[in-house]
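Annex B. Sample input.
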Amino acid sequence: MALRFIGIDPNTETEESPTVWVDEAKNELVIQGWKPNRELEAQCAVFEAPGHAVGIPDHEAVVRVPARMVPILREACDVAERAELH
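Annex B, continued. Sample output.
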């Protein structure tokens, strides 16, 4: 896996903070975030939308990242999109 570091939470004071990478081989975003509390996870587990199964499969996870990381996520999306075009 060829991960390209994109950014870390700009308000971080430790090495344990939300982080974003792009897996350039698979054109996927890789996101490290905070684990949700049980209430948020329960809300996500009952979310219904067309084409979206109710529940969180065992092979998936919900993570939280602060809104201040939106520019970092945009950059990651741009990097992944450019990689896909090549």
